[in-house]
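Intended use. Records like the one below are meant for learning the mapping from a protein sequence to its folded structure. Do not use them to infer anything beyond what is encoded.
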Amino acid sequence: MRDLSDLESWRFHTHPFGPGDETGGPFLVASKIDRAPLMVIASTGKGWDHVSISRQNRCPNWTEMEQIKRMFFRDNETAMQLHVPPAQHRSLHPYCLHLWRPNDGREIPMPPAEFVAPEVCDGR
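Structure written out for the chain above:
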């Protein structure tokens, strides 16, 4: 994860969790879709970087999740969303999604790129 002091202009200083530090804390970021606030809480601990992203009235969409991923993680870092079995679901907010990245040297396994798209595909 990035040094979060680089994101100081988005830090939410009056959040009940407190302002945090270079490794975590709450942030308010304007959605690039509609400028509505995205509540972001970042943390690092027990081998994981974690970012939760929520909106007041709906879940963040792909564009917003990608916006936050690019802000909070370095370009060479892979982050993931997990879809756990229903028995393992936990939620403090109905419209919150999470990004995770192991930070203890473990790599996230990746499927072969050709399973996603042929090499000649340029995304257009």
